[in-house]
Protein backbone atom coordinates (compact mmCIF):
# COMPACT_ATOMS: atom_id res chain seq x y z
CA UNK A 1 0.00 0.00 0.00
CA UNK A 2 1.40 3.41 -0.96
CA UNK A 3 1.39 6.07 1.74
CA UNK A 4 -0.26 9.32 0.77
CA UNK A 5 -0.03 12.80 2.19
CA UNK A 6 -3.14 13.62 4.14
CA UNK A 7 -4.62 17.02 4.91
CA UNK A 8 -2.67 18.91 7.55
CA UNK A 9 -4.70 20.87 10.03
CA UNK A 10 -3.71 24.22 11.50
CA UNK A 11 -5.85 25.45 14.35
CA UNK A 12 -5.63 28.12 17.00
CA UNK A 13 -6.55 28.13 20.65
CA UNK A 14 -9.76 30.02 21.30
CA UNK A 15 -8.57 30.95 24.78
CA UNK A 16 -5.42 32.56 23.40
CA UNK A 17 -5.06 36.22 22.44
CA UNK A 18 -3.04 35.05 19.40
CA UNK A 19 -6.04 33.12 18.13
CA UNK A 20 -7.56 36.14 16.39
CA UNK A 21 -4.31 37.18 14.70
CA UNK A 22 -3.19 35.76 11.34
CA UNK A 23 -0.12 33.56 11.55
CA UNK A 24 1.94 31.79 8.94
CA UNK A 25 4.09 29.68 11.25
CA UNK A 26 2.83 26.30 10.05
CA UNK A 27 3.12 27.47 6.43
CA UNK A 28 6.74 28.55 6.65
CA UNK A 29 8.73 26.25 4.35
CA UNK A 30 10.91 24.73 7.07
CA UNK A 31 7.95 24.07 9.38
CA UNK A 32 5.63 22.72 6.69
CA UNK A 33 8.40 20.41 5.45
CA UNK A 34 8.97 19.14 8.99
CA UNK A 35 5.23 18.49 9.27
CA UNK A 36 5.28 16.56 6.00
CA UNK A 37 8.23 14.42 7.14
CA UNK A 38 6.71 13.77 10.55
CA UNK A 39 3.35 12.94 8.98
CA UNK A 40 4.93 10.34 6.70
CA UNK A 41 6.85 8.71 9.54
CA UNK A 42 3.94 8.60 12.00
CA UNK A 43 1.61 6.89 9.53
CA UNK A 44 4.39 4.51 8.55
CA UNK A 45 4.99 3.57 12.18
CA UNK A 46 1.29 3.29 13.01
CA UNK A 47 0.60 1.05 10.05
CA UNK A 48 3.63 -1.15 10.65
CA UNK A 49 2.83 -1.55 14.35
CA UNK A 50 -0.82 -2.21 13.58
CA UNK A 51 -2.01 0.46 16.01
CA UNK A 52 -5.76 1.15 15.69
CA UNK A 53 -5.62 4.90 16.24
CA UNK A 54 -3.40 7.77 17.29
CA UNK A 55 -3.89 11.52 17.68
CA UNK A 56 -1.16 14.13 18.08
CA UNK A 57 -0.82 17.85 18.67
CA UNK A 58 2.21 20.16 18.71
CA UNK A 59 1.95 23.48 20.55
CA UNK A 60 4.23 26.49 20.33
CA UNK A 61 3.55 29.04 23.07
CA UNK A 62 -0.16 29.91 22.63
CA UNK A 63 -0.57 28.31 19.19
CA UNK A 64 -1.56 24.78 18.29
CA UNK A 65 0.77 24.59 15.31
CA UNK A 66 -0.30 21.19 14.00
CA UNK A 67 -2.70 18.46 15.01
CA UNK A 68 -3.88 15.31 13.28
CA UNK A 69 -5.53 11.95 13.85
CA UNK A 70 -4.28 8.67 12.38
CA UNK A 71 -6.05 5.37 11.96
CA UNK A 72 -9.42 4.76 13.53
CA UNK A 73 -11.18 5.21 16.83
CA UNK A 74 -13.00 1.90 16.26
CA UNK A 75 -11.83 -1.03 14.14
CA UNK A 76 -15.36 -2.24 13.41
CA UNK A 77 -16.91 1.04 12.27
CA UNK A 78 -13.64 2.42 10.83
CA UNK A 79 -14.54 5.87 12.15
CA UNK A 80 -11.32 7.89 11.98
CA UNK A 81 -9.39 9.15 14.97
CA UNK A 82 -9.23 12.95 15.06
CA UNK A 83 -7.89 15.73 17.32
CA UNK A 84 -11.37 15.90 18.93
CA UNK A 85 -11.60 12.18 19.62
CA UNK A 86 -11.93 11.47 23.35
CA UNK A 87 -9.23 9.32 24.94
CA UNK A 88 -8.73 8.19 28.52
CA UNK A 89 -5.46 9.83 29.62
CA UNK A 90 -4.66 7.57 32.58
CA UNK A 91 -1.95 8.93 34.85
CA UNK A 92 -1.79 12.27 33.06
CA UNK A 93 -4.78 12.86 35.37
CA UNK A 94 -2.18 13.25 38.14
CA UNK A 95 -0.98 16.51 36.59
CA UNK A 96 -4.47 17.97 36.90
CA UNK A 97 -4.70 16.79 40.49
CA UNK A 98 -1.46 18.65 41.13
CA UNK A 99 -2.92 21.77 39.48
CA UNK A 100 -5.89 21.63 41.86
CA UNK A 101 -3.54 21.37 44.86
CA UNK A 102 -1.49 24.33 43.64
CA UNK A 103 -4.62 26.43 43.16
CA UNK A 104 -5.60 25.73 46.78
CA UNK A 105 -2.04 26.54 47.86
CA UNK A 106 -2.16 29.85 46.02
CA UNK A 107 -5.49 30.67 47.70
CA UNK A 108 -3.86 30.14 51.09
CA UNK A 109 -6.00 27.11 51.94
CA UNK A 110 -3.06 24.75 52.38
CA UNK A 111 0.73 24.62 52.34
CA UNK A 112 2.82 22.04 50.54
CA UNK A 113 4.61 21.15 53.75
CA UNK A 114 1.40 20.56 55.68
CA UNK A 115 1.14 17.01 57.07
CA UNK A 116 -1.46 15.00 55.16
CA UNK A 117 -3.23 14.23 58.45
CA UNK A 118 -3.81 17.95 58.99
CA UNK A 119 -6.31 17.91 56.13
CA UNK A 120 -7.39 14.25 56.33
CA UNK A 121 -7.86 13.45 60.02
CA UNK A 122 -8.63 9.82 59.17
CA UNK A 123 -5.25 9.35 57.51
CA UNK A 124 -2.62 7.21 59.21
CA UNK A 125 -0.18 4.59 58.01
CA UNK A 126 1.66 1.86 59.88
CA UNK A 127 5.40 2.44 59.97
CA UNK A 128 8.48 0.79 61.45
CA UNK A 129 10.57 3.90 60.80
CA UNK A 130 10.90 5.66 64.15
CA UNK A 131 11.74 9.33 64.35
CA UNK A 132 10.87 10.09 60.73
CA UNK A 133 8.87 13.19 59.70
CA UNK A 134 5.17 13.08 58.91
CA UNK A 135 4.09 12.57 55.31
CA UNK A 136 3.33 15.93 53.72
CA UNK A 137 1.43 17.21 50.70
CA UNK A 138 4.76 17.84 48.95
CA UNK A 139 5.79 14.22 49.51
CA UNK A 140 2.62 13.06 47.78
CA UNK A 141 3.16 15.44 44.83
CA UNK A 142 6.74 14.24 44.28
CA UNK A 143 6.10 10.52 44.97
CA UNK A 144 8.53 10.59 47.90
CA UNK A 145 6.02 9.71 50.64
CA UNK A 146 7.23 6.14 51.00
CA UNK A 147 3.63 4.91 50.67
CA UNK A 148 2.77 1.67 48.83
CA UNK A 149 2.08 2.03 45.13
CA UNK A 150 -1.57 0.99 45.54
CA UNK A 151 -4.38 0.81 48.05
CA UNK A 152 -4.78 -2.73 49.42
CA UNK A 153 -7.20 -3.97 46.76
CA UNK A 154 -6.55 -6.11 43.63
CA UNK A 155 -8.27 -3.57 41.38
CA UNK A 156 -5.83 -3.88 38.48
CA UNK A 157 -6.77 -7.58 38.41
CA UNK A 158 -10.50 -7.35 39.02
CA UNK A 159 -11.14 -3.84 37.64
CA UNK A 160 -13.27 -3.26 40.71
CA UNK A 161 -12.07 -0.14 42.47
CA UNK A 162 -12.75 0.91 46.07
CA UNK A 163 -15.13 3.67 47.09
CA UNK A 164 -13.85 6.61 49.10
CA UNK A 165 -15.23 4.99 52.26
CA UNK A 166 -13.45 1.72 51.49
CA UNK A 167 -10.21 3.58 50.82
CA UNK A 168 -10.44 5.42 54.14
CA UNK A 169 -11.06 2.16 55.96
CA UNK A 170 -8.11 0.27 54.48
CA UNK A 171 -5.28 2.82 54.44
CA UNK A 172 -4.63 2.84 58.22
CA UNK A 173 -3.98 -0.91 57.99
CA UNK A 174 -1.34 -0.53 55.29
CA UNK A 175 2.37 -0.08 55.97
CA UNK A 176 4.86 2.46 54.66
CA UNK A 177 7.52 0.98 52.38
CA UNK A 178 10.19 3.65 52.96
CA UNK A 179 10.62 6.63 55.29
CA UNK A 180 9.35 9.91 53.79
CA UNK A 181 11.75 11.92 51.61
CA UNK A 182 14.31 9.14 51.27
CA UNK A 183 13.41 7.53 47.94
CA UNK A 184 11.29 8.14 44.87
CA UNK A 185 8.47 5.59 44.77
CA UNK A 186 5.56 6.08 42.40
CA UNK A 187 2.25 5.84 44.27
CA UNK A 188 -1.28 5.87 42.89
CA UNK A 189 -2.40 5.72 46.51
CA UNK A 190 -0.56 8.95 47.25
CA UNK A 191 -2.31 10.77 44.40
CA UNK A 192 -5.68 9.41 45.52
CA UNK A 193 -4.97 11.05 48.89
CA UNK A 194 -4.27 14.35 47.10
CA UNK A 195 -7.70 14.10 45.50
CA UNK A 196 -9.20 13.60 48.94
CA UNK A 197 -7.38 16.72 50.12
CA UNK A 198 -8.78 18.70 47.16
CA UNK A 199 -12.31 17.62 48.03
CA UNK A 200 -11.92 18.24 51.77
CA UNK A 201 -10.18 21.61 51.58
CA UNK A 202 -12.35 23.02 48.78
CA UNK A 203 -15.61 21.54 50.06
CA UNK A 204 -16.30 20.34 46.50
CA UNK A 205 -16.14 16.79 45.10
CA UNK A 206 -12.90 16.20 43.22
CA UNK A 207 -14.34 15.82 39.69
CA UNK A 208 -16.63 18.82 40.17
CA UNK A 209 -13.71 20.91 41.40
CA UNK A 210 -11.71 20.21 38.24
CA UNK A 211 -14.70 20.93 36.06
CA UNK A 212 -15.34 24.37 37.57
CA UNK A 213 -11.77 25.47 38.26
CA UNK A 214 -9.73 23.95 35.43
CA UNK A 215 -11.71 22.61 32.47
CA UNK A 216 -14.32 25.36 32.11
CA UNK A 217 -11.90 28.30 32.45
CA UNK A 218 -9.54 26.74 29.88
CA UNK A 219 -12.32 25.83 27.46
CA UNK A 220 -11.60 22.10 27.79
CA UNK A 221 -15.15 21.19 26.80
CA UNK A 222 -14.58 17.46 26.22
CA UNK A 223 -12.56 16.77 29.37
CA UNK A 224 -13.83 15.24 32.60
CA UNK A 225 -12.66 13.30 35.64
CA UNK A 226 -16.12 11.70 35.83
CA UNK A 227 -17.01 11.03 32.18
CA UNK A 228 -20.66 10.81 31.24
CA UNK A 229 -22.65 9.65 28.23
CA UNK A 230 -21.47 12.45 25.95
CA UNK A 231 -17.82 11.65 26.64
CA UNK A 232 -18.41 7.95 26.01
CA UNK A 233 -20.16 8.76 22.73
CA UNK A 234 -16.99 10.44 21.41
CA UNK A 235 -14.50 8.09 23.09
CA UNK A 236 -12.23 5.71 21.22
CA UNK A 237 -12.73 1.99 21.56
CA UNK A 238 -9.77 0.74 23.59
CA UNK A 239 -7.85 -2.35 22.55
CA UNK A 240 -5.56 -4.84 24.24
CA UNK A 241 -2.18 -5.70 22.72
CA UNK A 242 -2.01 -7.19 19.25
CA UNK A 243 -1.77 -11.00 19.27
CA UNK A 244 0.38 -13.10 16.97
CA UNK A 245 -2.52 -13.57 14.55
CA UNK A 246 -2.95 -9.79 14.30
CA UNK A 247 -6.18 -9.67 16.28
CA UNK A 248 -6.97 -7.38 19.19
CA UNK A 249 -9.56 -7.81 21.94
CA UNK A 250 -11.48 -4.83 23.27
CA UNK A 251 -10.33 -3.63 26.68
CA UNK A 252 -12.80 -3.40 29.56
CA UNK A 253 -14.01 0.04 30.51
CA UNK A 254 -14.02 0.73 34.24
CA UNK A 255 -14.19 3.75 36.51
CA UNK A 256 -11.36 4.08 39.00
CA UNK A 257 -13.63 5.38 41.80
CA UNK A 258 -11.49 6.50 44.79
CA UNK A 259 -8.41 6.26 42.55
CA UNK A 260 -9.95 8.76 40.11
CA UNK A 261 -7.41 11.51 40.96
CA UNK A 262 -4.67 9.17 39.72
CA UNK A 263 -6.17 7.80 36.51
CA UNK A 264 -9.79 8.57 35.56
CA UNK A 265 -9.71 11.64 33.28
CA UNK A 266 -10.78 11.72 29.66
CA UNK A 267 -9.74 14.43 27.23
CA UNK A 268 -8.85 15.24 23.62
CA UNK A 269 -5.70 16.46 21.90
CA UNK A 270 -7.29 19.87 21.33
CA UNK A 271 -8.30 20.17 24.99
CA UNK A 272 -4.87 19.09 26.21
CA UNK A 273 -3.30 21.62 23.83
CA UNK A 274 -5.18 24.36 25.68
CA UNK A 275 -3.71 23.07 28.92
CA UNK A 276 -0.26 22.96 27.33
CA UNK A 277 -0.59 26.59 26.23
CA UNK A 278 -1.31 27.52 29.84
CA UNK A 279 2.15 26.20 30.79
CA UNK A 280 3.78 28.90 28.66
CA UNK A 281 1.39 31.71 29.49
CA UNK A 282 2.77 34.97 30.82
CA UNK A 283 -0.59 35.98 32.25
CA UNK A 284 -1.99 37.19 28.96
CA UNK A 285 -4.59 34.51 28.33
CA UNK A 286 -8.24 35.37 27.97
CA UNK A 287 -9.99 36.51 31.12
CA UNK A 288 -10.68 33.57 33.42
CA UNK A 289 -8.25 31.24 31.65
CA UNK A 290 -5.17 32.12 33.72
CA UNK A 291 -5.91 29.46 36.33
CA UNK A 292 -2.39 29.45 37.82
CA UNK A 293 0.16 32.17 38.37
CA UNK A 294 3.25 32.06 36.15
CA UNK A 295 5.41 31.65 39.24
CA UNK A 296 3.33 28.64 40.28
CA UNK A 297 3.75 27.04 36.87
CA UNK A 298 7.51 27.53 37.11
CA UNK A 299 7.41 25.94 40.54
CA UNK A 300 5.64 22.88 39.13
CA UNK A 301 8.21 22.54 36.33
CA UNK A 302 11.36 22.72 38.43
CA UNK A 303 12.84 19.71 40.28
CA UNK A 304 11.71 19.27 43.89
CA UNK A 305 13.31 15.85 44.11
CA UNK A 306 16.42 14.75 42.22
CA UNK A 307 17.30 11.09 41.73
CA UNK A 308 20.53 9.92 43.36
CA UNK A 309 22.19 9.39 39.96
CA UNK A 310 21.11 12.86 38.76
CA UNK A 311 19.36 11.28 35.76
CA UNK A 312 16.15 13.14 36.45
CA UNK A 313 13.74 14.14 39.15
CA UNK A 314 10.22 15.14 40.07
CA UNK A 315 8.53 18.47 39.85
CA UNK A 316 5.10 19.07 41.34
CA UNK A 317 2.93 16.65 39.40
CA UNK A 318 5.48 16.28 36.59
CA UNK A 319 8.55 14.24 35.80
CA UNK A 320 11.59 16.44 35.05
CA UNK A 321 14.51 15.22 32.94
CA UNK A 322 17.27 16.40 30.62
CA UNK A 323 17.43 15.42 26.95
CA UNK A 324 19.93 16.70 24.43
CA UNK A 325 20.73 19.67 26.64
CA UNK A 326 17.10 20.65 27.20
CA UNK A 327 14.84 20.34 30.23
CA UNK A 328 11.82 18.14 29.52
CA UNK A 329 8.75 18.24 31.76
CA UNK A 330 6.40 15.37 31.10
CA UNK A 331 3.95 12.72 32.27
CA UNK A 332 2.69 9.52 30.70
CA UNK A 333 -0.60 7.73 31.14
CA UNK A 334 -1.87 4.19 30.60
CA UNK A 335 -5.23 2.77 31.54
CA UNK A 336 -7.55 0.21 29.95
CA UNK A 337 -6.22 0.22 26.40
CA UNK A 338 -5.46 3.95 26.28
CA UNK A 339 -1.93 5.37 26.43
CA UNK A 340 -0.99 9.05 26.45
CA UNK A 341 2.16 11.17 26.67
CA UNK A 342 2.25 14.87 27.56
CA UNK A 343 5.60 16.58 26.98
CA UNK A 344 6.76 20.15 27.60
CA UNK A 345 10.02 21.94 26.90
CA UNK A 346 9.49 25.14 28.90
CA UNK A 347 12.51 27.08 27.61
CA UNK A 348 11.50 26.43 23.99
CA UNK A 349 7.76 26.84 24.68
CA UNK A 350 7.13 23.62 22.79
CA UNK A 351 4.63 20.95 23.86
CA UNK A 352 3.68 17.65 22.25
CA UNK A 353 0.65 15.55 23.19
CA UNK A 354 0.05 12.04 21.83
CA UNK A 355 -2.79 9.62 22.60
CA UNK A 356 -3.30 6.06 21.36
CA UNK A 357 -6.09 3.52 21.83
CA UNK A 358 -4.03 0.35 22.27
CA UNK A 359 -2.27 -1.25 25.23
CA UNK A 360 0.86 -1.72 23.13
CA UNK A 361 0.87 1.83 21.80
CA UNK A 362 4.00 3.80 22.73
CA UNK A 363 3.01 7.48 22.63
CA UNK A 364 6.38 8.72 23.90
CA UNK A 365 8.01 7.22 20.79
CA UNK A 366 5.96 9.67 18.73
CA UNK A 367 6.10 12.66 21.08
CA UNK A 368 9.89 12.73 21.31
CA UNK A 369 10.32 12.45 17.55
CA UNK A 370 7.73 15.19 17.03
CA UNK A 371 9.70 17.35 19.46
CA UNK A 372 12.99 16.62 17.68
CA UNK A 373 11.67 17.16 14.15
CA UNK A 374 8.80 19.66 14.27
CA UNK A 375 9.70 21.30 17.57
CA UNK A 376 13.20 22.04 16.30
CA UNK A 377 11.82 23.50 13.07
CA UNK A 378 9.43 25.76 14.98
CA UNK A 379 12.20 27.01 17.27
CA UNK A 380 14.37 27.90 14.26
CA UNK A 381 11.46 29.52 12.44
CA UNK A 382 10.67 31.74 15.42
CA UNK A 383 14.28 32.82 15.95
CA UNK A 384 14.86 36.54 15.55
CA UNK A 385 16.82 36.12 12.31
CA UNK A 386 15.99 32.78 10.73
CA UNK A 387 18.48 31.76 8.06
CA UNK A 388 17.09 30.79 4.68
CA UNK A 389 18.57 28.99 1.69
CA UNK A 390 17.69 29.56 -1.92
CA UNK A 391 15.39 26.92 -3.39
CA UNK A 392 15.69 26.19 -7.10
CA UNK A 393 12.14 26.25 -8.55
CA UNK A 394 13.18 23.45 -10.92
CA UNK A 395 13.29 21.07 -7.96
CA UNK A 396 9.49 20.99 -7.92
CA UNK A 397 9.48 18.73 -10.98
CA UNK A 398 11.29 16.03 -8.99
CA UNK A 399 8.89 15.91 -6.05
CA UNK A 400 6.77 12.83 -5.54
CA UNK A 401 6.67 9.14 -4.68
CA UNK A 402 8.97 6.60 -6.32
CA UNK A 403 9.43 2.85 -5.94
CA UNK A 404 11.76 0.11 -7.10
CA UNK A 405 10.31 -2.93 -8.90
CA UNK A 406 10.01 -4.77 -5.57
CA UNK A 407 7.80 -2.22 -3.86
CA UNK A 408 10.41 -0.36 -1.78
CA UNK A 409 9.22 3.24 -1.67
CA UNK A 410 10.95 6.62 -1.64
CA UNK A 411 9.65 10.17 -1.52
CA UNK A 412 11.48 13.19 -2.91
CA UNK A 413 10.65 16.37 -1.02
CA UNK A 414 12.01 19.76 -0.01
CA UNK A 415 12.98 20.03 3.66
CA UNK A 416 14.71 23.01 5.28
CA UNK A 417 15.33 24.52 1.81
CA UNK A 418 17.13 21.34 0.69
CA UNK A 419 16.13 18.64 -1.77
CA UNK A 420 15.96 15.34 0.12
CA UNK A 421 14.98 11.73 -0.49
CA UNK A 422 13.03 9.96 2.25
CA UNK A 423 13.28 6.16 2.25
CA UNK A 424 10.33 4.23 3.63
CA UNK A 425 11.99 1.49 5.66
CA UNK A 426 10.30 -1.73 6.78
CA UNK A 427 10.36 -1.84 9.75
CA UNK A 428 10.34 1.96 9.95
CA UNK A 429 13.38 3.77 11.29
CA UNK A 430 13.29 4.87 14.93
CA UNK A 431 13.62 8.50 13.86
CA UNK A 432 12.13 10.32 10.85
CA UNK A 433 15.53 11.92 10.16
CA UNK A 434 17.18 8.50 9.87
CA UNK A 435 15.37 7.89 6.58
CA UNK A 436 16.56 11.13 4.94
CA UNK A 437 19.25 11.55 2.31
CA UNK A 438 20.15 15.13 1.37
CA UNK A 439 20.79 15.78 -2.31
CA UNK A 440 23.46 18.36 -3.23
CA UNK A 441 23.13 19.83 -6.75
CA UNK A 442 25.93 18.85 -9.15
CA UNK A 443 24.57 19.63 -12.61
CA UNK A 444 21.27 19.59 -14.49
CA UNK A 445 19.11 16.85 -12.93
CA UNK A 446 22.12 15.38 -11.07
CA UNK A 447 22.70 15.44 -7.30
CA UNK A 448 25.26 13.98 -4.95
CA UNK A 449 24.31 12.02 -1.82
CA UNK A 450 26.23 12.28 1.45
CA UNK A 451 28.13 9.09 0.60
CA UNK A 452 29.53 10.82 -2.50
CA UNK A 453 27.54 8.87 -5.08
CA UNK A 454 25.06 10.28 -7.57
CA UNK A 455 21.31 10.50 -7.93
CA UNK A 456 20.23 11.45 -11.46
CA UNK A 457 16.67 12.35 -12.45
CA UNK A 458 16.23 11.03 -16.00
CA UNK A 459 13.67 13.21 -17.76
CA UNK A 460 11.40 12.78 -20.80
CA UNK A 461 12.21 14.33 -24.17
CA UNK A 462 10.61 17.65 -23.21
CA UNK A 463 12.62 17.74 -19.96
CA UNK A 464 9.41 18.18 -17.96
CA UNK A 465 8.61 14.80 -16.39
CA UNK A 466 10.79 12.36 -14.47
CA UNK A 467 10.87 8.98 -16.23
CA UNK A 468 13.02 7.29 -13.59
CA UNK A 469 15.71 8.01 -11.03
CA UNK A 470 19.15 6.46 -11.35
CA UNK A 471 20.46 5.98 -7.80
CA UNK A 472 24.02 4.76 -7.95
CA UNK A 473 23.58 2.00 -10.55
CA UNK A 474 19.95 1.09 -9.77
CA UNK A 475 16.64 2.60 -10.80
CA UNK A 476 13.45 3.71 -9.09
CA UNK A 477 10.30 4.77 -10.89
CA UNK A 478 7.50 7.31 -10.33
CA UNK A 479 4.41 5.94 -8.63
CA UNK A 480 1.18 6.95 -10.34
CA UNK A 481 -1.32 7.79 -7.63
CA UNK A 482 -4.80 6.32 -7.95
CA UNK A 483 -7.48 8.88 -8.71
List the helices and strands and how they pair.
Layout lengths: L28 H21 L3 E8 L2 E9 L15 E2 L4 H14 L9 H4 L17 H6 L12 H4 L5 H7 L17 H15 L3 H13 L10 H5 L26 H4 L2 E2 L1 H11 L14 H8 L3 E2 L5 E3 L4 E5 L2 E10 L2 E8 L4 E7 L6 H19 L18 E4 L5 E7 L2 E6 L12 E8 L2 E3 L5 E6 L6 E6 L2 E5 L5
Antiparallel strand pairs: 1-2, 1-10, 3-4, 5-6, 6-7, 7-8, 8-9, 9-10, 11-12, 11-18, 12-13, 13-14, 14-15, 15-16, 16-17, 17-18
Helix pairs in contact: 1-13, 2-7, 2-8
Detailed description of the structure:
The chain is of the alpha+beta class. The chain folds into 2 domains: 380 residues, DD-peptidase/beta-lactamase superfamily (Beta-lactamase, 3-Layer(aba) Sandwich), CATH 3.40.710; 86 residues, Lipocalin. The protein contains 13 helices and 18 strands. Strands 2-1-10-9-8-7-6-5 form an 8-stranded antiparallel sheet, sandwiched between helices. Strands 11-12-13-14-15-16-17-18 form an 8-stranded antiparallel beta barrel. Strands 3-4 form a two-stranded antiparallel sheet. β16 and β17 form a beta hairpin. α1 packs antiparallel against α13, α2 packs parallel to α7 and α2 packs across α8. The N terminus is likely disordered.
Summarize the structure.
The chain has 483 residues and is of the alpha+beta class. Helices cover 27% and strands 21% of the residues.
Number of strand elements: 18
> For the report, how would you describe the main beta sheet?
8 strands, antiparallel
CATH class bucket of the largest domain: Alpha Beta
Strand order of the largest sheet: 2-1-10-9-8-7-6-5
* Poorly predicted tracts of residues: 1-22
Would you tell me which CATH topology of the largest domain applies?
Answer: Beta-lactamase
Tally of separate domains: 2
Overall average pLDDT: 91
Alpha plus pi helix count: 13
Distance between the termini: 15 Å
Task: Give me the CATH architecture of the largest domain, please.
Answer: 3-Layer(aba) Sandwich
Provide the CATH superfamily of the largest domain.
DD-peptidase/beta-lactamase superfamily
Strand content: 15-25%
The structural class is: alpha+beta
Please tell me how large the radius of gyration is.
25 Å
> Percent helix among the residues?
25-40%
- Gross morphology is elongated
